[in-house]
Amino acid sequence: MNTVVLVKQVPDTWAERSLSSADKTLNREGVDAVINELDEYAVEEALRLKEAHGGTVTVLSMGPARVTETIRKVLSMGVDAGIHVTDDALHGSDAIQTARAIAAALGTVGWDLVLTGVESTDARMSVLPALLAELLGVAQLSRARAVTVDGQVVRIERSTDDGYQVVEATLPAVLSVVEKINEPRYPSFKGIMQAKSKPVTTLGVADLGLAAGEVGLAAAYSQVTEVDQRLDRQVGQVVKDEGDGGVKIADYLVARKLV
Amino acid sequence: MAEVLVLVEHARGAVKKVTLELLTAARSLGVPGAVVFGPPGTAAALADRLAEYGAVAVHAAEADDIDDYLVAPKVDVLAAMVTDRAPTALLVASTAESREVAARVAVRTGNGLITDAVGLDADRTATQSIFGGAVTVRSTVRTGTAVITMRPNSVDAVPAPAGVELHPVPVSLSDEARRSRIVERVEEARSSRPELAEASVVVSGGRGVGSAANFAVIEQLADALGAAVGASRAATDAGWYPHSAQVGQTGVTVSPQLYIAAGISGAIQHRAGMQTSKTIIAINKDPEAPIFEIADFGVVGDLFAVVPQLVEELARRAG
Ligand SMILES: Cc1cc2nc3c(=O)[nH]c(=O)nc-3n(C[C@H](O)[C@H](O)[C@H](O)COP(=O)(O)OP(=O)(O)OC[C@H]3O[C@@H](n4cnc5c(N)ncnc54)[C@H](O)[C@@H]3O)c2cc1C
Ligand SMILES: Nc1ncnc2c1ncn2[C@@H]1O[C@H](COP(=O)(O)O)[C@@H](O)[C@H]1O
Question: What is the pLDDT of residue A98?
């Protein structure tokens, strides 16, 4: 079974994140870029499935030049090869355009399963797996907290708001995983050394068979028109409990008409 | 006037609150039409409630096995309706399944998608709160139909009774729509309290609560306020409270009028799921806990002293 695992490089969640004043896209300058932590679970699951069923695992990431750091990190965890989708024309692409570009990149390799994280911690859309299943015309198995593969049949426990559903499909499929599924491994020293010589293919818009005018900010289906970076939250009041903490909260709730 | 389609969320024979909010928002854009999925008879039972909030048409997409497959059957029906009727917008709740439905409808019909709107203007401009509430953006789509998912509790549901008509929508499940089959549904926990994502008040407990039995303290406060109970991941991972109660990046996103966090430090992943709450109250014995940075009102103290006193005080004042 051949798997492609999708990872995104995102600004560190602890950093102050902002949108650029020039074109209202994500500000990547001066912010630590890290692997979307929720994608590490997808990488781990891909490696476990390979250990159980054989085949290869390829990491695919779309984003600017520095995304190679994230790809190397994933290779050092034990993934076999990398694909980096990168092109200045892709800058500012929205979720649908990103899905189109990734779907086109997936068309350049053979795969049975595409594995993704449940959401990116920056955009938080949680739609890319569904978009890819739609564009690729394959089964959607999203939000898995457990996965089993038996021949061509994949069965997941899909987490829902009040529990889970057991969902079954036949390969090929797009599968997203939630963080409850496993505990991601750390790269070993050997893994880090081996990662340096693993193949990484770079694909641009022309390699994907897309026209430059189809992707990127100017062609996006949706558009950010205004940005307000003021913190909407005033600094609150913090009091020490002097034996009347509960009463003080009750006072506050009454004063604000919250009870 | 332009038509606005609203995907109806319902459970156990009742329309969910978020749908009434969506119908209210839809009325500022045009004439709301509600789309109901379920086995035959589902829509008729919900029609009066939907009409109360301004739905002029209820589209009944009914089939015995429509709920047996993930996402794709709903996409087939809604995409066909969007193509045929060219509504100015399709509004769905920002729940896990509906946002996936919305995304696929958008890409199949060539329309733009906005997720997690917390506000919506008459000209289809959506307001979104991003980066854990640190930045507010306004977005529009450039296409004929705007596909928009809205966060529960973003608008107040206001009734506006309309005369409603029931329209059957033909449903035929293609092989493609049957690719992902739901073979079993497991409900892990259900309580008589309000649903977490929709509740106007949420009381959450974290590692500081210390045990499953101690969550009774959190539940007592929740019941005094008519609130839902939430938990941090530390508390759900420890098995003290069901996973479905987890608030945060990988749990439920809540945006209530009032959020009370007791014994929760306020890790970034927790904040991601509650930071847009209108009022935040924190109780924590550590004055350095990051939760205080976003609290409107905080008490540094032992939750086992503060919370019971608050419950007593609320009861006393209620008289
Ligand atoms: C991929 C990933 C996803 C995650 N997703 C989520 C998520 O969705 N939701 C989530 O919540 N977390 C999530 N986490 C975990 C998160 O990082 C924190 O570990 C977690 O939120 C901590 O929970 P806590 O605040 O209850 O525990 P702690 O951080 O241990 O804090 C407990 C707090 O209780 C206080 N306390 C102790 N006793 C008392 C007392 N008697 N009275 C008052 N205060 C007391 C302490 O001072 C402390 O501040 C995620 C982590 C990862 C890596
Ligand atoms: N630019 C990207 N490159 C590779 N994978 C991505 C990219 N954006 C999103 N993904 C994948 O899609 C998942 C969901 O992302 P999102 O829909 O943006 O929340 C992530 O967890 C990643 O696995």
Answer: 95
Beta partners for residue A130, in sequence order: none
Cβ-contact A167, B183 below 8 angstroms: yes
Distances (CA, A) of A18 to A100, A126, B35, B163: 26, 20, 37, 46
Q: What is the pLDDT of residues B219-229, one digit of tens each?
A: 999 999 999 99
Task: Kindly report the pTM of this predicted structure.
Answer: 0.94
- Portion 192-251 of B in contact with A at CB < 8 A: 195-197, 201, 225, 243-244, 249-250
Q: Note the ipTM here.
A: 0.93
Q: What's the sign of the alpha-carbon dihedral A124, A126, A127, A132? A: positive
Q: Delimit the domains of chain A by residue range.
A: 3-219
> Nearest CB to A131: which of B104, B183, B311?
B104
Burial class (CB in 10 A: 0-12, 13-18, 19+), B303: buried
Pick the CATH number of A3-219 from 3.40.50.150, 3.40.50.800, 3.40.50.300, 3.40.50.620: 3.40.50.620
Closest CA to B112 of A88, A104, A125, A29: A125
Average pLDDT over residues B174-201: 92
Q: How far is the C-alpha of B180 from the C-alpha of B261, rounded, in Å?
A: 38
In chain A, count H helices and then E strands.
6, 13
